Amino acid sequence: MPSVTLTYEDGTVGVAGTSEESLPGVETDDRSGTRRAAAYRYPALRDALREAGHEIDDHVLDLPELPPLDSAYSLREYQREALDAWEANDRRGVLELPTGSGKTVIALAAIAATGTPALVVVPTVDLLEQWHRELSATFDVPVGRLGGGEQTVEALTVATYDSAYLRADELGDRFGLLVLDEVHHLGGEGYRDIARLFAAPARLGLTATFERPDGAHEAVAELVGPVVYDLDPDDLAGEHLADYEVRRVEVELTDAERERYEEAQGTFLEYVREVGITFRSGSDYQELVKRSGNDPRAREALLAKQRAREVMMNADAKLAELSRILDRHRGERVIVFTAHTALVYRISERFLIPAITAETGTEERREILSRFRDGTYSRVVAANVLDEGVDVPEASVGVILSGSGSEREFTQRLGRILRPGADGAKTATLYELVTNETAEERVARRRR
User: Whole-prediction pTM value?
Assistant: First the structure.
């Protein structure tokens, strides 16, 4: 049987020497007459050709030199189980483990075990720098960086999702292992091209909770592999993570707040009931947004919903309760989470707490977290930006003043207080402040 030649070109694998129709993902390029498939199909193509008895002239990967690697980390039992599960699935798959459980350590062990050039893809510049430090400290080789103002490529490289997306077709043949941190980001249609255009046979996804409202699990499973190992915080609490308790505290709206809330919520509900929108799926909300483009009443309903949300999430009683919580936990490290930047600054001014928002510069954020880490600051308040992608120092108390119904957001916030203390004997407390008799009660139930 004739030899089949495989080559890499701009995010695709070219196939020459066979006209077999059953090869996975292979299509004929009408412009050139060549047959090719998306680069991620490379391992499946090799397997199919070998099963058909073909010899393969393989020119797909152009891997740079990389000396043997060794990770000095000693894996905990569950970390070894996670790595073994990934290895057993042909070095493909997603690990779903709580924040603070050492997903990075497992990934470093995977990089050492595969011994192949690896690209680590991360969602933020903060994570880019954290991974760059970890890789540089663990392995005695140069580490490239794509993002944060730098574009250097080495056998071990860390990149932001944006940078990897922009250079995927150019670099898709340079790595044998693709590590995707916070892999749920790959569910976004644009970022999926990162996984599609790289030929790397080995793929490892990391996440604390693999929850996406757009149902992208199937796409990630196809491009990276299925969830091969998962644990939740309860599985590790007490031994590897701190014991914890979640306290739900209900607060009441003032009479004035209640009046504003009921008026705005009433406007919203009146419209959606009239047009039959039930919000049983995400597409229902999209339908309302679509209608708002040419229906003034739909637009007013959306605006009314936003006004009602702001009232219930920013209730004055929440600040009074926050004051009591801060008094109760004097001397402990506390992180306050909110959904609104305006509330962050209000809390920062009232309680003299350092604030971190999307508007906070990188250097200022680093300085705040550094002082939080060394104990100079005992509390910080943040609007969403500490939910993921930031190495947050150890804390023992979290306060959720407001947030979405996302299970992932809740788990990420809980994970921020689950790292065990220096003596291992810490019980973390997460307060969840919920405005009574409002839609926030349903939001809280959904995320739990």
Answer: 0.69
Distances (CA, A) of 396 to 255, 318, 329, 415: 35, 20, 9, 10
Is residue 159 located within the same domain as residue 291?
no
> Distance between CA 208 and CA 389 in Å, rounded?
11
Tell me how far CA of residue 389 lies from CA of 244, 280, 412, in angstroms.
22, 31, 10
Residues 222, 124 share a domain: yes
In total, how many domains does the chain have? 4
For residue 425, pLDDT over 50 is answered with no
Identify which of 428, 383, 423 has the alpha carbon closest to the alpha carbon of residue 404: 383
Count of other CB atoms within 10 angstroms of residue 283: 9
Give tens-digit pLDDT for 15-33. Answer: 888 877 778 888 887 776 7
Do 390 and 127 meet the contact criterion of CB atoms below 8 Å apart?
Answer: yes
Q: Is 441 inside any structural domain?
A: yes
Q: Give the type of residue at 303.
A: L
User: Amino acid letter at 95?
Assistant: L
Do 370 and 248 share a structural domain? yes
Tell me the CATH number at 149.
3.40.50.300
